[in-house]
Request: fold
Amino acid sequence: MANQDKHIAVWNNCLRIIEQIIDPQKFNTWFKPIIPVSIKDSTLTIEVPSDFFREYLEGAFLDVLKKTLKRVIGTDAKLVYMVKPVKVQPPMVFPAAQGLTPVNRSVSINTYQPSANPGPFVFPGIQRIKINPRLNPVYCFNNLVVGECNKMGFTAGENISLAPGKTPFNPLFLFGGPGLGKTHLAQAIGIAIKDKYPELVVLYVTGNEFKTQYMDAVNVKNKLIDFLAYYMKIDVLIVDDIQDLIGPGSQNAFFNIFNHLHQSGKQLVFTSDRAPVDLQNFEERLLSRFKWGLSVELSRPDYSTRLAMLKSRSFREGVRIGDDVLEYLASRIKSNFRELEGSLMTVIAQSTYLHKEVTVDLARNITDKIVGEEQSEVTIDKIVDTVCGYFNIAKDILVSRSRKRQTVQARQIAMYMCRNMISNCSLSTIGSELGGKDHATVLHACTTVSDLKDTDKTFRQYISDIEKMLSPADR
Reply:
């Protein structure tokens, strides 16, 4: 078999299997018109007549397709659709859907009727309910772009999904600024767990929703018991934006739920816009429990991660965009994934509705309105000037051999900022620009600053203030 005909042979094998599974009329209608286009590694690309055809195929036969491809190609099999071009328009390319929306099994919960007045010998009723996991299948691991900014959280999440409640990462506490992918990563863990352990009950809820549910429960007689019983049936509890869980009553209820689930070997995943130590108006006993497992900070994505995310999202949207446009967006928008993704979708929408080609000029016009004035490039000189201004130190003193504590601290912070905010800047280059230091000195400085940032609240504030001064668009 010639290598160029491999995709035809693979698809014919798939058809032979599918033909034995589904109704002959449906097979002729929905599978005969499909044309195999190519196969690369374990990814098969097929051409379908229209976008409607693709959507129906996904909705009606996704499970059949997944099982057949897995049997013919292997466990790593992937499917990509190419919608047949209309006139001179280029074909639209779509990856196959990641899967159906996760669902939980029904669980039994002891409940009281609102009007009941149970005495010591009155037993509650039993009600079977189905808990909606509230997971969005788009937020899966396959759609998560991994870089230095989130690698640790991703690795911990994968480990948790293989053995929920049985790893040292319980609870997992993800924190970082807005738009850095905390919700995506937290939901991806829940989706992966449901995929591997469908019998487990998973629930995603926000801190504000938990607080509202608690307040509703205490206002209805005996419903607080139902509320607690409901949450104690959860096998994997994901609480997003837990910093919103304020109020002594809701925190006390959550404390009891946390203890029950953790002691029962259930998995807990939390996200927050700040580290546990910086949470305000939280009971100390609750804060201490947040620190039991693993706390992971998600940082701003670097250029390569931003570019990879843009390529992934444009592929998911079925839109071909030139590398020059994606590279422009990745270099222009640096703050977070959400703003980057929003700019990409605006570019696609403008191109679609105005019938314009996606060009760098179109991207520039759009991002100027979203981001504002052009952000000046962060350079070693700009970082040094900013650090010197913040600590009121002359530049020649900063780059000198002075061993004064304040000077050394400022110099180390400048080295740390250069390494984390300037793409493709080597340790040797940083050391050379900051007083002729070698790469080992710079590496030691970066490690020292990173450690102090995690343990010293005042020092962490220094870093936060200087980052904001260097990235005014992120305020």
Summary: The first helix runs from residue 6 to 19.
